[in-house]
Design brief:
Layout: E1 6-10, H1 26-37, E2 43-46, H2 50-53, H3 62-77, E3 81-85, E4 90-91, E5 94-95, H4 113-130, E6 136-140, H5 161-178, H6 191-194, H7 202-207, E7 212-216, H8 222-226, H9 231-244, E8 255-260, H10 272-284, E9 289-294, H11 325-339, E10 349-353, H12 370-380, E11 385-389, H13 396-402, E12 406-408
Parallel strand pairs: 1-2, 1-9, 2-3, 3-6, 7-8, 8-9, 10-11, 10-12
Antiparallel strand pairs: 4-5
Helix pairs in contact: 1-3, 3-4, 4-5, 9-10, 9-12, 10-11
Length: 427
């Protein structure tokens, strides 16, 4: 990875939120994309709603797929590449599952053969429809779809880690069949990294798919525990990026900071621009970052009911397309980045994560846990830490490939071994 990191935004339509697919208006989409491109960004991540695109297991609506392609073409006309999430799935506290998976047709979405076949057909169809578009980056299986697999979801489809891996491999294969050679991946919320018994694991995130996706949200207990202006809050995204590398088999595997935002009131509105700059600067100080994709483009219209309060104000732009302070800050950062020298230097000090490959005990990595606190202590002392699993700490070839010349244990960092699982549900 020799080029500068990519900068983009998760596209939340200004009119109708993701319900805009019900009343798709290409002119409105074009106006939204114009306001995004004006910030100097280079890509968008877009979200079809699964029940609207595949209302029956054997019906993938051609017109809905055409509208997705129209959106992608409109983005390309404005110099924006397009990444597409498939199984929505879950967005901003709302679940979107087709009727053929719930209620009278209740089936486990990860293990039922008919459901899995239907999902694979859907992902393959979307990928194939976009495969010949040069601006198409690739598919993400769905947005934080791991939240369906366990607590705190009110009606989870429980699975084992082995079943999660089989499902991920099948879905990624379907995307590759539809659009060979594109950047296909999966993305989970931070339970994968911080919750001991969660079936989607760090190894899944760091080894399956083209890149590792990280979703960094400081309302997961970080801002509550350490404060909005704390180093831990400002470094959280960088920490997740570097934590992911402990489980990666490829020492040069790219990491995509696919979601990060400034949620109020955890980050007060008058501090959003500062948090944005601090967070992005820390993330860009991590080598191997494919890109940063902010959540989200436009605020949610307050005419829409029942969203958690923080979801209404996460946009870089208002829902009437006015640029907000965080949006202006993003635009400045992008301009500075393009005038800079690109990639971060290697991080030569590695914090040893004394966990097994299957991440049993991974709550040590969450806010308040020993690994988390040791990393933050090193950071505040001026060290630029990364992480390495204890099982690889004695592998000189692995360390050399990553540029690691110094190992530090939790005890070396002066942190007692304690754990505090993440409190975040999902968003």
């Amino acid at each position: 990875m020799t080029t500068s990191p990519r900068f983009g935004v998760n596209y939340t339509p200004s009119k109708g939120w993701f319900h805009h697919w019900l009343d798709f208006d290409l002119d409105d989409v074009r106006a939204d994309l114009d306001s995004i491109a004006a910030l100097g960004l280079d890509h968008v991540r877009v979200f079809p709603l699964w029940p609207l695109f595949q209302p029956n297991r054997t019906l993938i609506r051609p017109r809905a797929v055409e509208q997705l392609v129209e959106l992608a073409d409109a983005a390309a006309e404005r110099g924006l590449d397009v990444a597409v999430d498939g199984l929505q799935g879950h967005l901003s506290s709302f679940d979107f599952q087709p009727s053929w998976t719930v209620s009278w047709h209740r089936r486990n979405m990860f293990t039922d053969p008919d459901v899995v076949d239907g999902q694979a057909a859907y992902l393959r169809t979307l990928a194939a429809a976009l495969a010949d578009r040069p601006a198409f980056l690739g598919m993400t299986l769905g947005n934080e779809i791991n939240q369906f697999s366990g607590d705190p979801h009110p009606d989870p489809d429980r699975i084992t880690p082995a079943q999660a891996e089989r499902w991920l491999r099948r879905m990624l294969d379907a995307c590759e069949q539809g659009a060979p050679g594109r950047m296909h991946l999966h993305a989970e919320y931070d339970a994968s990294w911080y919750v001991d018994d969660h079936p989607f694991t760090p190894a899944h995130a760091a080894r399956l798919g083209a890149v590792t996706a990280v979703h960094s949200w400081v309302f997961n207990g970080t801002a509550q525990r350490y404060g909005a202006d704390s180093p831990a809050t400002g470094q959280h995204a960088a920490y997740m990026i570097e934590l992911s590398k402990a489980w990666a088999e490829d020492p040069h595997r790219p990491v995509w900071l696919q979601e990060v935002g400034a949620p109020a009131p955890h980050i007060p509105a008058d501090r959003a621009a500062g948090f944005t700059r601090t967070t992005i600067a820390a993330a860009l100080d991590c080598p191997g970052v494919w890109g940063v994709t902010w959540w989200c483009s436009h605020d949610v219209d307050r005419a829409l009911a029942d969203f958690p309060e923080l979801e209404y104000t996460l946009g870089l732009l208002t829902n009437d397309r006015r640029v907000k302070p965080a949006g202006r800050e993003i635009a400045r950062i992008v301009e500075e980045l393009r005038a800079g020298n690109g990639r971060a230097a290697p991080r030569t000090t590695a914090l040893v994560v004394d966990l097994p490959d299957d991440a049993a005990g991974r709550s040590l990595c969450g806010p308040g846990g020993a690994v988390f606190e040791a990393f933050m202590r090193l950071s505040t002392e001026g060290v630029r830490p990364t992480t390495v699993l204890a099982g690889r700490a004695a592998d000189p070839s692995h360390l050399a490939a990553r540029g690691i010349t110094r190992l530090v244990t939790v005890d070396d960092a002066g942190v007692g071994r304690r754990a505090s699982p993440s409190s975040r549900a999902s968003s």
